Amino acid sequence: MTETLLEISDLTVTYERGSTVDTALAEVGLSLRRGSVTAVIGESGSGKSTLAHAVVRLLPDNGAITRGTVVLDGEDVLRRTEREFRPLRGRHVGFVPQDPIASLNPTKSIGAQVKESFALAGSSLSARQVEERVAGDLRDLGFSDPEALLRSYPHELSGGMRQRVLVAIAFSQRPQLVIADEPTSALDVLVGQDVLRRLHALRAKHGTTVLLITHDLALASRNADDVVVLQRGRIVESGPIAEVFADPQHTYTRSLLASSARLVAGRVLDVGEAYRRFARAEPADVATVDPVIELAGVARTFRAGGREVVAVRDLSLTVPRGATFALVGESGSGKTTTSRIILGLERADRGSVRVFGNDVVGLGRGGMKALRRRMQVVYQSPFESLNPRLSLREIVAEPLDAYRVGSRQERRARVVELLDRVQLPPSYAERRPRELSGGQRQRVAIARALALEPELLVLDEPVSALDATIQAQVLTLLTELQRDLGLTYFLVTHDLGVVADVASQVAVMRRGRLVEHGSTAEVVLRPKHDYTQALLAV
Amino acid sequence: MSLPSPVDTEPEPTVALDPSGSRGRTVARVVGVRLLHAVAVVAVAYTASFLLLFVLPGDAVLARIGTTDTVGNADLSGMQLDSLRAEVGLDASLGRQYWSGLTGLARGDLGSSLINDRPVTALLGEALPNTLTLTGLSLLFSVPLGFLLALVAVVPRSRAVRSLAALLPSAYVSLPVFWIGVLFIYLFAITLGWFPSGGSQGAASAVLPVAVLSLLGAAQFAQVLISSLRAEVGKTYAAVTAPAKGAGRAYTVFRHCLRNAAFPFLAVFGLRVGALLAGTAVVEVVFARNGIGRLMVESVRAVDLTVVLGLVVVLALVYVVINTLVDVGYALLDPRLRRMAPVRSGGES
């Protein structure tokens, strides 16, 4: 047995797109030490996921490995035919996919899907031994009742539970290597942290080598021994993660590290420390005399098929003019329902909802239309919130058209002005969303929200779909816009770390209730509730 | 050994357990709703066709003696049309005719043909078995054939084979049914002489019509299945999770994708059966077979109100039955729907 388990050299992967051939990975070389955890970091489009899939040869149909060697345990596995390669999957290389929702078959029980791995790998274990190993692994992964879990179906499980099931599947055959492709990016912060911690425990127990694909530098720094930095399909830097993060050699690594406020000199700061260093928002001199949003005793329950889900229970909060109010909570906490109630898209069962002093609940169609002019919304996914068939001009002008603002010429001029506001060149007006990057699209969404000169912007996870470097840029833009235009922000997010340094006030929501709320400094530096403390420790 | 979590971020799986006894009540309620639904569908279909038929020009009496064109305008009034109409009940007010039809329907009496006075139930009784045999047999062949075609269009590694298999169904459905019928008659009945060209007597007479309809059904089913199978094969659980466990392509398709791809298939199955019945009408005419389709064509031509309405009622019932079967199929295929009932221990493995 050699020290190196996996040695990749000169690996080149191309994608055929229509008549063109894109190179996703170019002459990539890396080696994994037995028993180590290696993180592959880079922005979206850098080829991280392609690398993960190329190692197990599960590239999409239009992808091809055109050059290179992948030596696993002394054998160049690229020389194998597909049929010869298949027995390696599962038995020698486990794979944890990115999206826990789409990665389990919805119509097969968890038990069937976990146990299937043993049959497919030609395991020599008896049925009883399989039962025991699966139950043991599931307990290691934090499931207190494996039998009930195995009888359930994917839709009965939360995202975090599904991801832990996928980890169990990947480790079930005790492979030497497990590849985890962004295993936590689709999960809430605390849930993702929990999944990763358990994956680590399992890995340590079985001495598994792990290749961890991630865009989250703090996560990489906490979990990996070595790091590989990918930029546009090429490795720009690699080595022990402590050294690389403390003393990055390549400019790209440096810019990547600089974008994450949480990493300083190779060390991960917790949210509080980062806040102390980087806080951008001025201490709240915003008084509560002129409230923009006032919620008092708001409750909302959803009923479907005899089931009741209480989304919001007895919620009261006040957002003063000029504030950046961050509502923080995990999925299912009721934060999105709250923002929809404020926007008048959802009705509260109980309580009063006042925006600019107007009672939203009692407002008629006309009153609502007038109110919507003063409050606009920016959604999470810049990929889905822009109509792909419209040009940017049409997208940004849509609110102007809807409210019949100005003449045609005036609207054209206004679109250019708005694009300029979000730092996009006027030439972009005729482009369509697919020609833009995620960050640029989110800028367009912001420009559209600004078209009617609103006073309040509801920002629903405005940066969580973006890379860290882009997140920082968009947040800076939002801060500038607020200063120049005197906007009030109501910001909904699951990640307190991302917004702590732009928010003036923070409210933490859990299971439909506010567990803590106050100025950002208060909440971040002196959290009172356990849950807030857990969020801040991430 | 379970590690303590910093906060209880996630509840353990909560499996929906109905209190025992409510299951029987649930089934009774579902059956009740279904029956009510069936009655409503038949009543609405009956009413709509009744109104439509009255908008049509002419009536059965005129049709029986020929149209105004053949008789000429001259002496229509002198032909005692009114007494003829009174004979078959066409003189009553619209409301009365409608009401007597509807109450008859409730008693299971569909009235008598306006053309030859035979009870509609008897006419249907003669025609229905032929058509049901034809449709049933063609479904029996077309469903497996459709699945087979779809699998050939998705499973093989060779892109050429897949593309060809995907092309066939689209090509076939774009040909008109009557044209294929005539082609089959020319090829297999006239040129080769293997099967009779028409008629309803004997098993041999059913071969060509069943072949035409089976191929049509198979092509339509295959089209739906190909697109849904392709979608399933591209999803992560089939594209990544299963192969990462060591599964091959055929295994993944058969054990993981096929069931999930069958849902869209089931959804259009009901509609396709309707299309198949329409296809049957054409085939019955082309092959000169007795059956519902031919009876329908002849009755509409003769404005034989009672027979057409009787046919509408029967077809509406067929639709209700098919849709109920489709729903049962959903419940059988999708564990998520079954989970409304108490959970049995074990589960599949």
What are the salient characteristics of this protein?
heterodimer, A: 538 residues, alpha/beta, Rossmann fold, 2 domains, 20 helices, 36% helix, 27% strand, globular, B: 349 residues, mainly alpha, MetI-like fold, 72% helix, disordered N terminus
Describe the overall structure.
The complex is a heterodimer of chains A (538) and B (349). By secondary structure, chain A is α/β, with parallel strands linked by helices. Chain A folds into two domains: 4-268, P-loop containing nucleotide triphosphate hydrolases (Rossmann fold), CATH 3.40.50.300; 277-537, Rossmann fold (3-Layer(aba) Sandwich). Helices cover 36% and strands 27% of the residues of chain A. Chain A has a six-stranded mixed beta sheet with strand order 6-7-8-3-9-10, with helices on both faces. In chain A, strands 18-19-20-15-21-22 form a six-stranded mixed beta sheet, with helices on both faces. Chain A has a four-stranded antiparallel beta sheet with strand order 2-1-4-5, with helices on one face. In chain A, β1 (4-17) and β2 form a beta hairpin. In chain A, α3 runs parallel beside α6 (159-171). Chain B is mostly helical and 349 residues long. Chain B has a single domain (29-66, 86-338), classed as Orthogonal Bundle (MetI-like fold). Chain B is built from 14 helices and no strands. Chain B has helices spanning 22-55, 60-65, 68-71, 81-88, 94-107, 120-154, 159-173, 177-191, 204-234, 236-244, 249-286, 292-301, 305-333, 335-338. In chain B, α8 (177-191) packs across α9 and α12 (292-301) packs antiparallel against α13. Mean pLDDT of chain B is 75; it is low at 1-21, 67-72 and 341-349. Chains A and B meet through β6, α3, α5, α6 and α7 of A and α10 and α11 of B.
